[in-house]
Amino acid sequence: MKVTKFTVNPFGENTYVAWDESSREAMIVDPGMMQDHERAVVTGFIDDNNLVMRHVLLTHAHIDHVTSARWMADRYGIEVAGSELDAKLATDLPLQAQHFRLKIDLDVLHIDRPLIDGDVISLGNEPVHVLSTPGHSRGGLVFYAPDSALAFTGDTIFEGSIGRTDLPGGDYDTLIGSIRDKVLTLPLDTLLIPGHGPTTTVANERDFNPYL
């Protein structure tokens, strides 16, 4: 699996396009683009590389991660996939925009394809496993690709830090439990690809993350 990162919006959110080299099948994880020029950069990359979009995946439904989810799904004729436990966050997108004083027009977002722990998504011939990691939000998910030894962690864990738990649906103890049970149990060389900031590894966070 190949992965390209686009850092977008005022929150410095990482949007990822990942694809299978042989089939050119692709997915976008957390499309948080808020401006037309950000969308143009991402779609230009997809089109220039002849990628066939198959999935819009949401690690959670906070506004900085989902602003262009419906836009991408409509453009490529695919579904928005995420946890139904974050359905209220998704439908409250206009309220989230008001909370953060964002001057953008948003409709409510509906999750087309509910994902739960243990689901497997195909990208070409490569499986992507869905791990439930609540705590940053009720419906937090991690997308783990064992064949490529990488995991898209959203805001569950960062290099040397963890997701905040003071937003609706957040709970510190739940988040720590999710990280210990679902992230730190992955192979130590697994690359952790977060929603903000640089990549890290399971081994690095197990040994050096002060929250763990």
Distance between the termini: 29 Å
Oligomeric form: single chain
**CATH homologous superfamily annotation:** Ribonuclease Z/Hydroxyacylglutathione hydrolase-like
Using DSSP, what is the number of strands? 14
* CATH fold-level topology: Metallo-beta-lactamase, Chain A
Task: Provide the CATH architecture.
Answer: 4-Layer Sandwich
Percentage of residues in helical conformation: 25-40%
* Low-confidence region ranges: none
List the helices and strands and how they pair.
Blueprint: E1 2-8, E2 13-19, E3 25-29, H1 36-48, E4 52-57, H2 63-66, H3 69-76, E5 80-82, H4 87-91, H5 93-99, E6 113-114, E7 120-123, E8 126-132, E9 141-145, E10 150-154, E11 157-158, E12 161-162, H6 172-183, E13 191-194, E14 200-201, H7 202-208
Parallel strand pairs: 3-4, 4-5, 5-6, 10-13
Antiparallel strand pairs: 1-2, 2-3, 7-8, 8-9, 9-10, 11-12, 13-14
What would you note in describing this structure?
- The protein has seven helices and 14 strands.
- By secondary structure, the protein is of the alpha/beta class.
- Strands 1-2-3-4-5-6 form a six-stranded mixed β-sheet, covered by helices on one side. A six-stranded mixed β-sheet has the order 7-8-9-10-13-14. The chain has a two-stranded antiparallel sheet with strand order 11-12.
- Strand 3, helix 1 (36-48) and strand 4 form a beta-alpha-beta unit.
- The longest helix is centred in the first third of the chain and has 13 residues, at 36-48.
